[in-house]
Amino acid sequence: MSGPREGFVSAFVVLALLLVLTVLTVVAAYAPIGVFHVPVALALAGLKSILVVLYYMHMRHGRSSDWVVIGTGLLLLAVLIGMILSDVVTRGWSG
Amino acid sequence: MDDTRETDPAEGDAGPNYLRAGYSIRSWLLTTDHKRIAILYLVSLTVMFLVGGAAAVLLRLELISSEASLVSGDGYNKLFTLHGVIMIFFFLVPSIPAVFGNFLIPMMVGARDMAFPRINLASWYLYMTGAILGIAIIVGGGVDTGWTFYTPYSSTYANTHVILAVAGVFIAGFSSIFTGLNIVATVYAMRAPGLGWGRLPLFVWSLLATSLIILLATPVLAITLALVAVERATGIGIFDPGLGGDPVLFQHLFWFYSHPAVYIMILPSLGVVSEIVACFARKRIYGYPFMAGASIAIAILGFFVWGHHMFVSGQSVYAGIVFSFLSFLVAVPSAVKVFNWIATLHRGQISFETPMLYAFGFIGLFVVGGLTGLFTATIAVNVHIHDTYFVVAHFHYIMVGGALMGYLGALHFWWPKIMGRLYPERLARWSAIFVFLGFNLTFFPQFLLGYQGMPRRYHVYPQEFELLNVFSSGGAIFLGLGYLLPAIYLTWSLKYGRAAGPNPWGATGLEWTTASPPPSENFARTPRVTEPVYNYTGERQS
Amino acid sequence: MSHGHKGVAPAHQFESVEQQQRVARFGMWMFLISETMIFGALFTGYAVYWTLYPEAFQEAAQFLDVTYGTVMTVVLLVSSTTVALAITALEGDRRRLAAGLFGVTIALGLVFFVLKIIEYAEKIGDGLLPTRGFEYPGAESADQAQVFFSWYFVITGTHAVHLIVGLAAIGFVIWPILRGTYHAKYFSPVEGTGLYWHLVDVIWIFVFPLLYLMGRAGGMG
Ligand SMILES: [Cu+2]
Is there a contact between A79 and B304 if contact means CB atoms under 8 Å apart? Predict the structure, then answer.
């Protein structure tokens, strides 16, 4: 490898963004947004994770093979959560 | 095959063969050579197979008569649990990936070793730790939950060694994860020059698909069993219906692993059969891209169908319908495989050496197991045959008729490569036939028993089921003989077998271009691949 | 094909150090995805019970302490930053700076861990340990609240175990960095350790809102 992939400054900028997003997460939790609490919390957490993955975990310059691993994992995670919850949600429905 | 003769078995310039790299116990227990680790697995898996097999013998002995004759109800529960836990988690799941994957993957891709040799060794130690816990259960008095560890029985009521058992499975799970990770990394990054994705043997593709499942499903089983242990030890409320916990959640998480685990067991065998069929039909595999794609498709689709184990569990009817429909889809890539094998055989120069007999046996039994899988995936039929011997017969056709036939086929096909010796061919053919006939005699009657309504997991049963049970137990004797014979003649061949030479079958593939047994670094120099995969020309050349 | 950097030889199974580092990274990502599935299963279970018992879970969630959760989040985010900085330093061959930054990471990780223990102790002191002797002061079903606290302890506990593993791993790479075993041209084990720590951080990024911040505005979460 030739030289650092990310600079010192960018690490601090990302930290600042992560802290701002954390504040937003807390604020959103107390805001009167009704059913949107969970989607908003998940969106903000997702955004923070993307920052960590792209900058701290260097996936901004990542190889496509590593992206395939991440993508497959997230797909299966969605299958796990989605299909189990779809059972729980539809259990009460009467046929 | 010109380059096969360059490396003489005796005088390869890559040093002595791997079996002679050291004779001390230490040189085996601290080895990082993938081939020696494969041998460690072969030996330890054989021991576990004998333990699981002994339990099966006792089960079949008990079932000869409709009354309790040999063991008590409790004893019977412990026996079938032991049989299931050992055979699934300590034999079938690791079997082909840990033995033949370890031995062959680096050789098939032209590499000197796995990508992470020390993790590979650590993986064997994890397996051994799990296996020793598994054995400790027997000494300690057994566990009676069934291999499925269903809650709340396992988490609250059972008073046997559940925590010990799930700890063993948990640890063995991480052993599989490390093996899978190593296989994918090796294939991804260490292929020899010229070995593109389209030139990988189908065995490699099938193990890639297997590893995908291992990496993504095993952690879910591990944490689920850990939750059972924690709930059992501390009395917190995870699945306990007494507190409003949901045992169906346990079943979801359990089958999220355990259905795909069936593909962990069968996919490697599908790969083995492709290698064998191409070799003994002297033909290029028909529809190579579809065969490779079907392996991956089976792995992915296999993640969408687990709910077919839960049709009568309290799962929602709607989820059941979706799971049932998706289950039928898995039949498509599976059928693609079978049709392509048949197309490969068509107009091939077929010969019936032992590995080919196992491959044929596999195809037949896999078709029966697969088609009866369609019955069990149909909700209305499932309600009738749920928890009966029909299901037992179905999954034994897949896991024993399929996975184990593939394992034995692989053992015979690559034995000359692994040990450098030929086994007695006639005897081996007879034992392959024994296995096939014994298997069918054991398990076909169980389809009939199940369809007539005999439930699984009981040590006594109504007398009308006795005749078919006697057939089944009788078949088990033949089956047991068929498994013992290879253990004897393969061991015999280690000393008395004829030297195999680099390529006794005249097979294609990089592993056959080097000496048998291979040198420690596998190849005298890094191979360069210039030919397409399965470049069989019709006539056998050696 | 062997073009080792400045006398850095790859392990015998590899052709080059570049290949070795690429494979190590790829392997680490596979492992991280496996780890993610563990937490995926835990979050799934937790979500199932939220769906089944929304009222009880909403009430029970109010007994978690937002201040602790927030402080721990900040501590962990900063610790992830110091790891990223350490990798940058190592890539520039500033090994002592890298080791120092890893030292800071360990310190922050320990702060997190101590806070976790204090938080657990408080919960246990309040009778909220979800086993025999569980004493729930809320109005909704105490059984269902016990299920909530079971998941709280299991999820944060599993996370804490991963945190300890990460701390140990960092502890093991500091000395080799100082000694020069790992340096700008070869630092795969350090990079793997860093990736692992970031995963511990990412998991917590989800734990924080999904446990500590649920149902705070009174409305359904
Ligand atoms: Cu299934």
Answer: yes
The most distant pair of C-alpha atoms in chain B lies apart, rounded to whole Å, by: 71
* B539 found inside a domain: no
Residues B188, A76: C-beta atoms closer than 8 Å = no
Q: Cβ(B313)–Cβ(B253) under 8 Å?
A: no
Higher pLDDT, B390 or A5: B390
Residue C2, pLDDT score: 36
Q: Flag whether pLDDT at A48 surpasses 60.
A: yes
Residue B146: which domain range? 9-513
pLDDT tens digits for C164-212? 999 999 999 999 999 999 999 999 999 999 999 999 999 999 999 999 9
Q: How far is the alpha carbon of B509 from chain C, nearest alpha carbon, in Å?
A: 20
Residue range(s) defining the domain that contains residue A15: 1-62
Predicted local confidence at residue C218, as pLDDT = 64
Residue B474 lies in a domain: yes
- Which pair of structure tokens corresponds to residue B14? 């890559």
ipTM of predicted assembly, 2 dp: 0.94
3-state secondary structure of B11: coil
- Calpha distance B269→B438 (Å, rounded): 20
Q: Would residue B96 count as lying in a domain?
A: yes
Residue that is written with structure tokens 């320990």 in the block: C110
Which CATH superfamily, name and number, covers C36-213? Cytochrome c oxidase, subunit III, four-helix bundle (1.20.120.80)
> CA C99 from chain center: how many Å?
20
Q: What is the pLDDT of residue C215?
A: 82
Q: Are B51 and B88 in contact (CB under 8 A)?
A: no
> Least CB-CB distance to A15: which of C81, C205, C220?
C81
Supply the pLDDT for residue A35.
87
Residues A12, A57 within the same domain: yes
Best of C13, C17, C48 to substitute, by most chain B Cβ atoms within 10 angstroms, is: C13
Q: How many angstroms separate the CA atoms of B421 and B493, rounded?
A: 6
Whether residue A58 is found in the same domain as residue A15? yes
User: What averages of pLDDT result for each successive group of 10 residues across chain B (542 residues)?
Assistant: 40 72 92 96 96 95 92 94 96 97 97 96 98 90 93 90 95 97 96 95 97 97 97 93 93 97 96 97 95 96 96 92 95 95 94 96 96 94 94 96 96 97 96 95 97 94 95 93 94 94 94 94 91 83 52
Same domain as A77, residue A52: no
**Same-domain status, A46 and A88:** no
The answer for C 188-207 residues in CB contact with A (under 8 A) is 194-195, 198, 201-202, 205-206
Does one domain contain both A34 and A13? yes
Residues 27-56 of A with CB under 8 A from C: 29-35, 37-38, 41-42, 44-45, 48-49, 52-53, 55-56
Please tell me if residue B301 touches chain A, with a CB cutoff of 8 Å. no
Number of domains in chain B: 1
| Short-list B135, B134, B199, B138, CA closest to B167 | B134
Q: What is the CATH number of the domain that holds B152?
A: 1.20.210.10
Q: Which of B338, B332, B386, B336 is nearest to B365 (CA)?
A: B338
